[in-house]
Every structure is written in structure tokens, then in C-alpha cells.
Fold this sequence. Notes:
By secondary structure, this protein is of the alpha+beta class. It has helices at 2-16, 127-130, 141-144, 152-170, 231-238, 262-269, 355-361, and strands at 25-26, 29-32, 43-46, 60-62, 73-83, 90-93, 108-117, 132-135, 187-199, 224-225, 275-283, 295-298, 308-314, 319-325, 333-335, 344-351, 384-386, 400-410.
Amino acid sequence: MEGLLKRVLLFSSLLITLLPLPAYTMASSSFMSPSTSSSKEGLPFPVMQRADDDDDRPQFVYDDEDGSLPSLIRSVRTKLNYVTPGTEEIHVRRDVTGCDSTYEGAKWDSVNVEIRNGRKTTTSWYLDEHGFELIPDGISPSPDDTIDFLDTQDVMDRYYPECERLLKELLHASGDDDKSKLASGGIACARAFDHNIRISTSSFGKELKGGGGSKAQVPLGMVHGDYTKMSGPRRLHDLSQPPKANDVWKQRLQNGQSLLDPMLVQEALEGKRRFALINVWRNIDPHHSVQQFPLACANAQTVPSDGLKTLYIHYKDRVGENYFCSHQPCHEWYYFPDMTFREALLIKQWDSHGALAKILSSDDTITTSASAIDATGPSTFAIHSAFLDPTTKSDAPPRKSIEVRCAVIWDKIE
């Protein structure tokens, strides 16, 4: 009883110092309510919220009695912003700065969820199996300490190669005793082709140096996946062609060059080689861990196909696709609190050999209730979202992060 009383008092004292709900604005637009559908006015982003106090469960649980260390948090309760099951097609227009118009057709559904501390589970998280993997000290200390992450050219010149090196080292063939490696032969190529900078303060919206008008974005509090069964292969194909207007990677090439070997890409799209699109997510603040709006990933084995909704992203020169998702009780969410500058989180966005990819390829309407957990094969992607962490203190430093998108093709011919 005494231990329980101490924990209740701890919760009460910490709740006093929790970070208030964000009230971001961009120009004259503000966040819209997550319970409403998109309109033609205001940004479409739903507000990140705390969980409802509709029962006796605490908003966070510590493993120890005094709860003095964030690393000892077992789980947090918060809200994630899904779309409703009745949501159909969703459309958005994205300009050269990376900013979006309203999300036409989106009906938001804010759901109370439990997000477990991935550092405290007995499960080891693997990219191939679960769709995400934390890499401790995954990026070498030098020259990262001096990279200007708000300078697009500096990021491409010095950080992109580090991400490519990391993936090449991790994703080579291995025996069954090392599940962190994807056993599909060696890597024919791993190339970084795009990135986003996200900052959770008034610095968002700041134009990035050398980014062709691109701006720092806010943490994205919507459950989503970055590619679909159509846009994943299409993006790979685009990388084998000369770059388009919105392609930042054109700055890495001479005129007329493509980022990927067209022959390798053709063989991958024909099913002769495995390919994947993988994000390298990282804290870019060398002095502070991530304390505001951390990133949560769903275990890919718990995500069925029938909740997926296609988002069509209209660029000036092409149409991309993401997946939004409606809530499913089977979803299991995890995060890694206090991510440091030396850690990297790999998040799979599409895998041509994924179990769910094969299901989706055979089901044009996505009406089946199949899940990767019911099939055999690797994970296909991990849906993810930033969230409002109820343990965050009011004086916590802002989140500053980068996500680098990479394309990987294996050298094994099927």
C-alpha cells in the first residue's frame, strides 16, 4: 500500500509539470480538431492529445518505486490520431517547401492507446520481423558533430553516406543466429534520396539552406506509412530516372544521371531482386535526448491490411501515395524514450518481400482481413506517429530530428 501511495503521489507531482497541449500555427492556419474532417481552411494536422481520464489507469507506469529515470518507464497512455473506418480516399497538395494543403476526405479519430517502452520489453526488435529496429551508436561520432542539419547540401554530402554505410553493414546476409540481418544475400546498393527535418518549436517553418525552398516541419502526429503497394515500386522506378523538380537528390548528380542503376531497378521490379525503402530516423540535438513528441512505431506483425486508407499526395510533377490507417484493437505500439544523438531508429517503409506486400498485391481493393502475423515472410512496413508524451516536463528541450529515406536493393537474383 505504501508503494502504491508513493506512486500516486509521484504521478500527481509529475502531472503538474507536464507539457501543455501544443498550439502551433503556420501563417494564419492552425491545427484542426481531430474529430472533424478536413476543410479548405487551416492546416489538416490533428492536435496531439493526452489520453482521456475515463478509468483508473495511470497515464504512465514506472518499473521502480520512485520513478526517477525516464528509461524506467514501462508504458504511457496517450492518444494517437487515426482516420475513421469510413474514411475513403484522402487527397493533399504538397508544395516545394514540403508544406501541405488540407487533407481532403480525412476524418480523424483520436484513440486512447498504450505505448510500451521498447527498451524495457523482453522482445528484441528487428527490422525484418517487426518493421523497426533501434541501433545504439549506429552513426559514427565523426563527422556528425559538425554537420549542419539545416544545410541540405551538408546533409547530403556528409550524412547521407553515413546512412548508406549503416544500412549496408546491417542488411547483409547472415545466419539464423543474427536476426538483425536480412538474409537475402548481400546488398547491391543502398542510396539515400530524401530527408525531412522536424522541429517542435517556433523554428519549424524555417527555410533550410540549399533546400530549394524546403522548410523544417513539425512532428507529424498522424498514424501513417510512407509508401503503398503502388508508390513503393513507383518510387524505386523514379530513382532510376533523371530527377524531377521536387527531388532533392538531383543535387548529388550530374545532369541526366539517375540515382539508381536502371538495370538493378528493372530486375527488382520484375521480382528478381528484393528491394526495400527504409527510413533512418535520428535525434539531431547532440546536447539533449528526445523528450518532446517522441516517435512511436506499431509492431508490423499486429497491423492487418483492412484498416489501410490511401492518401494521394499531389506534387507539381507527380502524385505520391502514403497509407493512413483506422484503429484496430490488435495494434501494438512501442517507442524508445530519450533517444540520443548517437542512436538511430530504422523504420521500414516498404519491402517487396514482405508478407503484407504479397497480400496487398493480390487484393486491389484491400478488403481482406489478412495480417502479416497470419502469413509467412518479413514485415512489409511499420506505421508510425509522433505523440504527446504525458511524462514530458514543461521545460523539456524541443525535439529536433531528421528522417532520411533510403532505397536498398539486394544482389541475390531470384
